[in-house]
């Protein structure tokens, strides 16, 4: 939970006229920043303690439509407020916006001031506390992929999202020459995120025309989730200011690579100095603890897939031969598997979960990976032997759920997640998933019109 400004520094910057706007943000179910823009002097005078928002913001869909059927908020309950409690440890300047600072808020019940059980940041906080009780610190890192377009969001909308001009006309995976042409946005993104206290290790071209990958320095898990959501929001704002557009859709085009969010995770001692996954004498140099943690993630992968792939579109990404996984298996260094061991033989040894798309909510995704890892430790699971070969062609391997419907029903019946997250939380997000499916099932797609308007 480390911004790059203290509250005292913020007050000094406001008094000096260097900051005149404070964004007090929370995170919604979709992983987006929601909140208010404060005139800075009012924030430092009073709103630093708390502000409020309508509780429908954790009971709506991606279109901001209030969704019927939630227990936490509804028309019958009047859609009241929740408390937005600023986390003053997360204050950071926002270099791409003039004289602006940003911080994140935790969401609490308006009457009891207790954490909202279904708040994404609160869900992850509870899993962090479970780690702390055992003397563990989790380091996570998420690699975000996205497409950069030589379009504005308005021009893309006018084209009905079809025949869009990507920032590069052909695949430039790792090619320096092609990504030089994209530096107008990417250089700003690296440097301005760094200046906002979000250290960017590198960016590179990915396996699609105009597709980018950006790698944020690993961090304690809650801080990493904070970095992730601010990066996504800032990337779109920076691109828009350059007359460009960015998409984090899992699969925006059937014929092109999807956008992933690979998640690297490992456990360390509470002081962050001793890697608990590294054992030079163990098989694969992965400690018994690390093997149990990884075995838990493998065992429960089907049950938590929805949290890594929360939309209809998310499941279009799981296609053979696209570097997106289709099977639940781990390997030592194999990009066809759902889980990949990285950093073998070093203190940086970690497991990479390759299931998630760039459309995931990092707080929820990180939370369920922790829950599954801890279940593996508690159950003293043994890690199976690593897979060798082309996992796409291995018919005997367990499959990642193929559809949102499959993933939803698997989540609904998960005893492990109900125990780790709570019945109320799982029911809330199962309802979210079922609403997404319901909305899709009753809509007419362009594919249906193209295929059937004349031919049926």
Automatic annotation (TrEMBL):
Alphabetized SMART domains for the sequence: Gln-synt_C
The protein's required cofactors: Mg(2+)
Domain GS catalytic span(s) in chain numbering: 120-456
EC number, as in UniProt: 6.3.1.2
Pfam families hit by this protein: Gln-synt_C
Root EC class: ligase
Stretches assigned to coiled coil: none
Origin: domain of life: Bacteria
InterPro entries tied to this protein: Gln_synt_N_sf, Gln_synth/guanido_kin_cat_dom, Gln_synth_cat_dom
Keywords carried by this UniProt record: Ligase
GO terms, molecular function: glutamine synthetase activity
Family membership noted in the UniProt record: Belongs to the glutamine synthetase family.
Protein name in the entry: Glutamine synthetase
Native source species: Aminobacter ciceronei
Upper lineage: Bacteria, Pseudomonadati, Pseudomonadota, Alphaproteobacteria, Hyphomicrobiales
């Amino acid at each position: 939970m480390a911004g790059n400004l203290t509250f005292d520094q913020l007050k000094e910057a406001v008094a000096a006229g260097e900051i005149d706007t404070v964004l007090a943000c929370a995170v919604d179910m979709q992983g987006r920043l929601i909140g208010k823009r404060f005139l800075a002097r009012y924030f430092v005078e009073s709103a630093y303690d708390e502000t409020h928002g309508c509780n429908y913001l954790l009971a709506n869909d991606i279109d901001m439509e209030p969704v019927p059927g939630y227990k936490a908020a509804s028309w019958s309950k009047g859609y009241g407020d929740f408390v937005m409690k600023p986390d003053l440890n997360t204050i950071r300047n926002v270099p791409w916006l003039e004289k602006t600072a940003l911080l994140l808020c935790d969401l609490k019940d308006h009457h009891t001031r207790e954490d909202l059980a279904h708040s994404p940041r609160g869900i992850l906080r509870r899993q962090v506390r479970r780690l702390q009780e055992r003397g563990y610190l989790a380091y996570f890192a998420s690699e975000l992929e996205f497409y950069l377009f030589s379009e504005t969001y308005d021009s893309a909308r006018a084209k009905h999202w079809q025949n869009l001009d990507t920032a590069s006309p052909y695949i430039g995976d790792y090619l320096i020459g092609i990504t030089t042409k994209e530096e107008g946005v990417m250089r700003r993104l690296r440097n301005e995120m760094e200046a906002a206290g979000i250290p960017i290790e590198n960016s590179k071209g990915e396996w699609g025309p105009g597709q980018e990958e950006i790698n944020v320095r690993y961090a304690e898990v809650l801080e990493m989730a904070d970095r992730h959501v601010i990066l996504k929001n800032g990337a779109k704002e920076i691109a828009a200011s350059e007359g460009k557009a960015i998409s984090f859709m899992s699969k925006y085009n059937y014929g092109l690579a999807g956008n992933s969010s690979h998640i690297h995770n490992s456990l360390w001692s509470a002081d962050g100095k001793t890697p608990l996954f590294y054992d030079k004498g163990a098989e694969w140099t992965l400690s018994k603890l690390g093997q149990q943690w990884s075995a838990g993630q493998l065992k429960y992968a089907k049950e938590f897939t929805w949290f890594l792939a929360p939309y209809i579109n998310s499941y279009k990404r799981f296609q053979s031969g696209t570097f997106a996984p289709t099977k639940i298996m781990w390997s030592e260094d194999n990009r066809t598997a759902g889980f990949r061991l990285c950093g073998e033989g070093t203190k940086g040894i970690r497991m990479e979960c390759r299931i998630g798309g760039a459309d995931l909510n990092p707080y929820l995704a990180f939370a369920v990976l922790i829950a599954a890892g801890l279940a593996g430790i508690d159950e003293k699971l043994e890690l199976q032997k690593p897979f060798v070969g082309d996992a796409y062609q291995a018919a005997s391997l367990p499959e990642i759920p193929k559809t949102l419907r499959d993933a939803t029903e698997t989540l609904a019946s998960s005893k492990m997640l109900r125990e780790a997250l709570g019945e109320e939380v799982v029911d809330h997000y199962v309802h979210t998933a079922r609403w997404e499916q319901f909305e899709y099932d009753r809509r007419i797609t362009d594919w249906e019109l193209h295929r059937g308007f004349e031919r049926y």
